[in-house]
Every structure is written in structure tokens, then in C-alpha cells.
Automatic annotation (TrEMBL):
The lineage of its organism: Bacteria, Bacillati, Bacillota, Clostridia, Lachnospirales. Residues 32-158 form the DNA mimic protein DMP19 C-terminal domain. InterPro entries: DMP19_C. It comes from the Bacteria. This is DUF4375 domain-containing protein.
Length: 168
């Protein structure tokens, strides 16, 4: 298991450096080299960051639905049930839209959410799609506790998975 080392004196004078060290570890470690707990942190941080910087469409556009299933599981494992349900709602959206030229959930995710260049043949369905995006993005922003709040708690509970505090 890869962990970042951080000096005890630094932690004592600037406790936030533990979080910064964890972020550095997550940013510089390949997913395949992470523990399950580290992966949970990485998936949830990436998801939350993308949604807060451009909504769910930005998340799907930038991450191409890579690790979508793992992100859903990670959200549950950190206690972000509401956020997981919101993300899951996006993947099931074609059940409501019933786009005739899309037959599977995977195709919907690939063409409409990830590509975000799908041409709607029905203007009402396009409006409905845009309304869903706005509704679920807003629901996400209103979630309490937030993903970051839950990740801070998760980090405190699993600090030893990310950092090793060493004597000076």
C-alpha cells in the first residue's frame, strides 16, 4: 500500500497538511495501485469536483463514464446515498425520455451523457432532458451532508490508508 509520509511537526503546526498530503497521493497514484479505500476517495473526489465545476454533464464528458459503477459503490461506502441516487438517476434517464434510436443504457450513457452531442429529434424530449440535468444538479448541490463533508469524515476514519506521520 502506497502512503505519503509527512513530518509530525508539520502536522502539529498545520493540521490541514494531512488532507493536502492525501490529495497529493490520490493525484499521483494510478487507480490500479490504490487500495479500495484510496479508490473510494479518488472516485468520490473526482465526481464531486467535476459536478461542482460544471455539473453532471461535465463529469460524464470528462470521465467518459469510466469507473461509473465503482463511483456508485464508493458513494455508498462513504455514506453519500443521496448523491449516489442522483448519479444513478442520470444513467436511467432514457427510461423517462424513451429515445427511439437508443436501445440500451450503455448506448444512452455513451451517446447522450458522455458525447453530449446527441441530436434530439423531439424538441420536447430535449427540453425534458435539460430540465432533468438542471433538477439533478441542483439536488446534488443541496445535499447535506455534502460529499466533501463525508470525505473529510472518511479520511479521518481511514487516515492510515493515505499518510504515515513520521518523527522529525
Amino acid at each position: 500500500m502506497k502512503r505519503n509520509k509527512i513530518l509530525k511537526s508539520l502536522v502539529e503546526s498545520r493540521p490541514y497538511e494531512k488532507w493536502n498530503s492525501m490529495l497529493e497521493l490520490i493525484s499521483n497514484t494510478e487507480i490500479d495501485d490504490m487500495t479500495r479505500i484510496q479508490k473510494n476517495m479518488a472516485f468520490c473526489l473526482r465526481y464531486d469536483s467535476e459536478v461542482h465545476n460544471g455539473g453532471h454533464i461535465q463529469y460524464f464528458t470528462n470521465f467518459k463514464a469510466t469507473y461509473l459503477h465503482e463511483t456508485l459503490i464508493a458513494l455508498v461506502e462513504i455514506g453519500a446515498i443521496n448523491q449516489m441516487e442522483i448519479l444513478q438517476s442520470f444513467t436511467n434517464l432514457n427510461n423517462d425520455l424513451k429515445l427511439e434510436d437508443i436501445s440500451t443504457k450503455e448506448e444512452f450513457i455513451s451517446r447522450v451523457l458522455v458525447g453530449y452531442d446527441y441530436t434530439f429529434k423531439d424538441e420536447k424530449k430535449e427540453e425534458l432532458f435539460e430540465q432533468y440535468i438542471l433538477k439533478w444538479d441542483n439536488k446534488y448541490y443541496e445535499c447535506n451532508p455534502s460529499v466533501i463533508d463525508l470525505l473529510e469524515k472518511y479520511f479521518q476514519e481511514n487516515e492510515q490508508e493515505f499518510i504515515e506521520i513520521i518523527d522529525d
